[in-house]
Design a protein that fits this description.
The complex is a heterodimer of chains A (113) and B (110). Chain A is mainly β and 113 residues long. Chain B is an all-beta fold and 110 residues long. Chain B is built from no helices and eleven strands. In chain B, the strands form two sheets. In chain B, strands 2, 4, 5, 9, 10 and 11 form a six-stranded mixed beta sheet that branches. In chain B, strand 7 and strand 8 form a beta hairpin. The chains are: A mainly beta (113), B mainly beta (110).
Chain lengths: 113, 110
């Protein structure tokens, strides 16, 4: 049982390049989330999904797109990377219910030059 | 005012010390609260949930003061392994969404 995995772990991009971050979970969770974490700031929600084929905007969605074609996968895309998108990106998942515990992947460290 | 505010620290304490962190939140309608732990360069993990006035789990005690809108985390008999950043977390709307504080860093030294 791998839990939540993220690919890649590290990436360096040049301004204007595009890339896709992959999040996969094997816990059959309905809800999935993408966050970014910057120094001195809390995790901020970029986009989230409440089920296969659904996506919704979070607090900081600009410059990102997402897709959830399969229940176990949640993809985060950067169409034209900017230095302001240099950050650590975390994916999380959970099941609907009373508990708000989210299970996080190990993160992707992205640097945009 | 930020939705969740924490003292960033760092708190530098010797082994065996008792240390307390506070967190204030702005949404008075929040019913549940959480403390997550994040080790350096790792993902956050749930440490404790607080649904009523408080919760205790071994050396860790979380307390809630709804009137003043703050949550505290008390760690007794600190261990070296307690060194980490502690994130105060509050639910935000539906779909199990969460708002994270920036975290309080704890460093326990021998």
């Amino acid at each position: 049982n791998a839990g939540v995995t993220q690919t890649p772990k590290f990436r360096v991009l040049k301004t204007g390049q595009s890339m896709t971050l992959l999040c996969a979970q094997d816990m059959n969770h309905e809800y999935m989330y993408w966050y970014r974490q910057d120094p001195g700031m809390g995790l901020r929600l970029i986009h989230y999904s409440v089920g296969e084929g659904t996506t919704a905007k979070g607090e900081v969605p600009d410059g990102y797109n997402v897709s959830r074609l399969k229940k176990q996968n949640f993809l985060l895309g950067l169409e034209s990377a900017a230095p302001s998108q240099t950050s650590v990106y975390f994916c999380a998942s959970t099941i609907p219910g009373l508990s708000n515990e989210q299970f996080f992947g190990p993160g992707t460290r992205l640097t945009v030059l | 005012r930020k939705e969740v505010e924490q003292d960033p620290g760092p708190f530098n304490v010797p082994e065996g010390a008792t240390v307390a962190f506070n967190c204030t939140y702005s949404n008075s309608a929040s019913q549940s609260f959480f403390w997550y732990r994040q080790d350096c360069r790792k993902e956050p993990k749930l440490l404790m949930s607080v649904y009523s006035s408080g919760n205790e789990d071994g050396r860790f005690t979380a307390q809630l003061n709804r009137a003043s809108q703050y949550i505290s985390l008390l760690i007794r008999d600190s261990k070296l392994s307690d060194s980490a950043t502690y994130l105060c977390v509050v639910p935000s709307g539906g779909y199990n969404k969460l708002i994270f504080g920036a975290g309080t860093r704890l460093a326990v030294h021998p």
